[in-house]
Design goal:
Radius of gyration: 25 Å
Order of helices and strands: HEEEEEEEEEEEEEEEEEEEEE
Helix content: under 10%
Number of strands: 21
Strand content: 35-45%
């Protein structure tokens, strides 16, 4: 807005009129953007995993995963899979990694308009209503006093608060609706994860989104069942030194250290960097060279028969 506090001369008035379109364009360019200065956090990310628990009903616990692309009517979508999450604890608050899961099944497909900051998708199966057409799942462009709208949203809550918080490895916008609904940029609901938005608090008083991780199963401490449907037995291991330089030493390999085993190292993003197979008993303690790795955080996986050990380590 150009304010003239006194009667301008004709040249001054012409100069003000020339500036007006530039000022309007500058204002419009910032319209709809958040005022936090943070980069937009995408929702459709390869290898994104949502670990979702619903409290006492353990059979409904799920791990949702985005992986693989598909082309539908000249539009690229990312596939959304779901897997049953098995847990041996009663309370969601006691659920800790590693997460034991069943076989994956296709739940739907999603795509993202990063310019409009909106996520669309089709839902084919599961406990959610099916959607054959392209439907808005989440709108991450909402501002204060706007209405939150999307797939399986409970009512049309008005945005009462908009904040930026460090969540799941990034600074993300968080919308709070009038009924206590929480929408997290790039994540979705703090209750249902990638699908839906509801003001649901579990009986224990905790939200249902347990964790969010980007990477393959090993990087996210997700353990698949065996081909016979038996859950893998997971045992903890200790790795030292922390941080490591040339080698890491792995202790607590368990009493059943005999038999074939595979030792693998993954990057923080889940890329396999090294694997070595042992046809006989694992040496205890186990020494593994990491001198070739650049500084960073990695995941060590030891797999044998129906047992699995997963642990992170840091290379300096």
């Amino acid at each position: 807005v150009v304010m003239l506090t006194s009667a301008p001369s004709r040249p001054g008035l012409l100069h003000a009129y020339r500036l007006l379109p530039l000022l309007l364009l500058s204002s419009l360019a910032g319209w709809g953007q958040d005022t936090t200065g943070t980069a937009y956090q995408a929702f459709v990310v390869e290898g994104a995993n949502w670990i979702v628990s619903v409290g006492a009903e353990q059979d409904d616990d799920r791990v949702y995963t985005l992986t693989g692309d598909t082309l539908i009517q000249d539009t690229v979508y990312k596939k959304l899979y779901q897997r049953t999450l098995y847990r041996d604890v009663e309370l969601t608050t006691d659920l800790q990694p590693p997460y034991s899961v069943g076989e994956p099944s296709l739940l739907g497909v999603v795509r993202e308009d990063s310019v409009q900051r909106k996520v669309f998708g089709k839902v084919y199966a599961g406990t959610f209503p099916t959607l054959s057409g392209d439907t808005l799942l989440h709108d991450f462009s909402a501002r204060l006093d706007d209405t939150l709208s999307g797939y399986q949203y409970e009512g049309e809550p008005i945005v009462l608060n908009l904040d930026t918080l460090p969540l799941y490895g990034a600074r993300r916008l968080v919308w709070t609706g009038e009924f206590g609904d929480e929408l997290v940029e790039g994540i979705g609901s703090t209750v249902y994860g990638p699908l839906g938005l509801r003001n649901l608090v579990l009986a224990e008083g905790y939200r249902a989104l347990v964790n969010y991780c980007v990477g393959n199963d090993a990087a996210c401490s997700i353990v698949s069942t065996t081909s016979l449907g038996e859950k893998l037995s997971v045992w903890p291991v200790a790795i030292y030194p922390v941080p490591a330089s040339d080698r890491i030493t792995v202790q607590d390999l368990g009493s059943e250290s005999s038999g074939p085993a595979t030792v693998s190292i993954y990057s923080a993003m889940g890329r396999l960097l090294h694997t070595q197979r042992y046809d006989n008993a694992l040496p205890s303690p186990l020494s593994v060279s990491v001198s070739y790795l650049p500084a960073g955080t990695y995941m060590l996986e030891i797999r044998r028969a129906t047992e699995l050990a997963v642990s992170r380590f840091v290379k300096r």
